[in-house]
Records
---
Amino acid sequence: MTTSNAPALKIIALGGLHEIGKNTWVFEYNDEIMLLDGGLSFPDNMMPGVNVVLPDMTYLRENKHKIKGMIVTHGHEDHIGAISFHLKQFEIPVIYGPRLAMALLEDKLREAGVLNRTELRRVMPRDIVRVGTNFFVEFIRNTHSIADSFSIAINTPAGMVIHSGDFKIDHTPVDGEFFDLARLAEHGEKGVLALISDSTNAERPGITPSERAVYPNLEKYIMMAKGRVIITTFASSVHRVNMILDIADKQGRVVGVVGRSMLNVIAHARNLGYIKCRDDLFQPLQNLRHYRDDQILILTTGSQGGPMSAL
Ligand SMILES: [Zn+2]
């Protein structure tokens, strides 16, 4: 039971509410703050000269003594891209998140020279961690376009809060890691104080097909191609990249990878077993001239037409 004198749980979205990008949530109870995700967004055409867009961090700078730690749901830029900037302004003692996101984040923090300002801890499905004294956080496997993504159950003195993280319910996930809906249902049975749910285009009626549905068409069009095949997709779309590599291998094409983020994500995802393929499937770009055009597939970043990307 809570009484009127009990401290309130504050849940504040500094970014990511009614917008795509900058996902940054603050959970505050008593004198403790736990952050959930630290994302950025990219400038639109009205922001010439701007590289990245960050949420307004004034509240966190003013309350930095309260920050006990951060939870990361998954490795997309709009969920981890701002963390290196935050660490230059205030301390985050510990960051918990999935292995793939933590591997990508570690690269970013090292590059920004702030890796020593926090501690990165990898979690597995259904792990429970404590942040400060008030937040008990459980990681619940969900399905999303990037592998190794979580929904989050946050047990606080005021009650249970479920944060869905980004998700697409996919009953036949490419990596075989199913959405742990049973665990969410268990929390639902016990009672939930608040549900924070985020899925792009959730307002649109209908269902989104499984990622696997893309495979037959990809296979068909790559098969029909008489010359080189050049494919662009989000580097972080690990499942799609995995399928493309699989098809290239089956059809006797070697793969050249273009773009730093594509190389990074593939390397980390292979390390963690989310992408499975032979080493010699990949060829350095300068070796591709030794192959016929119909033996080559090039995988590149740039699917959004970004002026700085490889395509
Ligand atoms: Zn996402």
Note: The chain has eight helices and 14 strands.
---
Amino acid sequence: MKNLRRKTLAAASAVTLGAGLAVTGGLAPAAAAGPETSYLVLAPQGATTGRAAARVAAADGTVVAAYDQIGVLVARSTNPDFAARVAGAGVESVASTAGLGTALDEGETVEVPPALVADATGDPTREPLYGQQWDMDMIHVPQAHAVTTGRPDVVVGVLDSGISSTHPDLATQIAKDKSTSCIGGVTDTTEAAWNPTNSDHGTHVAGTIAAAINGVGVTGVAPGVKVAAVKVVNNDGYIFPEAAVCGFLWAADHGMRLTNNSYYIDPWELNCRNDARQRPVWQAVQRAIRYSQSKGVLNVASAGNSNYDLAHKITDTGSPNNGTPEERANLTNACLDLPAEAPGVVTVAAVGPTGAKSYYSSYGQGVIDVTAPGGDTRFRTQGARSTSTDGILSTTFNTVTRTNGWGYKQGTSMSGPHATGVAALALSAHPDMTPGQLSSFLERTATAKPCPVGVYNPVPLIPTGPNAYDATCSGGARNGFYGAGVVDAYTVVK
Ligand SMILES: [Ca+2]
Ligand SMILES: [Ca+2]
């Protein structure tokens, strides 16, 4: 899956490159307009953006968003020489984000028939579809709800593809005054802008965090808290760095204490150390993450669905021109996969109904912090067939028929929001915790899980090949497959 994503990225980049060649390869003068391109313009760290904004204007650019909090401008220009012209005093770096969008790992949705409406009892286990929510039992959600379902002043930013505001399990759960689109790096708070267009991924994530106990459908982990839609996935299914920057800043400046990030923005880590164009982009995202942490936000992120050892990725993907394995320590911060690997971010792996690592879950000692149910639709048949009921049941929005419903998805996109929901319960019970305290608390209260012995492969019959999902776990009580263990909703509130 990692390779697939890279091919998608490469294709997106190639289109952009082709368009650029068409302009610069002709006889047109240098100042001729090219395609409109988005840029991130970084002022020196700690400086205001005034001088940078003046340079943008002088270089035929338009500032579409100014993030003075972190010294970052989002600019657009059709001038092919924009980056060269904007460089100078007051500008630390400038880079186009063209081709640097990462495709959302969407996964398929398997819808279930609409649930009958039952009496709203306040008991999560009496929700009509609760019998299919093995995930909630695994992390002791009913026991937690006997203590608290969460406080409504805890607002979780769902940086994702939007949330359906008409969904019967979510309509009462959304902080509409804190919801926005961040597509293009620019906020748009109209309700239509932050509703889903071509993806219900964010609707599913939001339901896992906070679907209501209302006699309809499912329960979320923390139905007493609120979710805010912060739409960062564009209509083509890509997350661009400027949207992520906008999302982190929006959440931080609108009083959110938690964000859920079930996506991955993936620098080409083999290139980024020496790639002058990529480096400023990742620096801007990291400034945004650091800023949100300084405002008291704990960010939770999915580890990814590539069964990839994140602790040894340079060795694993080493360039054919360089046979010497390189150590992670040689990497600069600009080469991290974001947001999962940014310092202070809670990185979540996935387990299936048995509590064992999901076949797809990425891993890595020192990278994975905790794990949570994300589903595993292949273990039951060793990979021969897919059993959708071993996925995660949550709220859905059919983007073709434009109807709300419920259905299964699987992925670390689904495990992340379980950890976020547990963090929201923890914060409801312990409102004074700092992000650092909260993340340690999540780890301390998790149920530790040892490494399986030897090479792990739960799906030897999967059609992509008998060894495609081999993985080896390293570490002790805290290890590369499960981090500190499986999060627990009850132990954080009891
Ligand atoms: Ca419900
Ligand atoms: Ca981390």
Note: Residues 2-24 form the longest helix (23 residues).
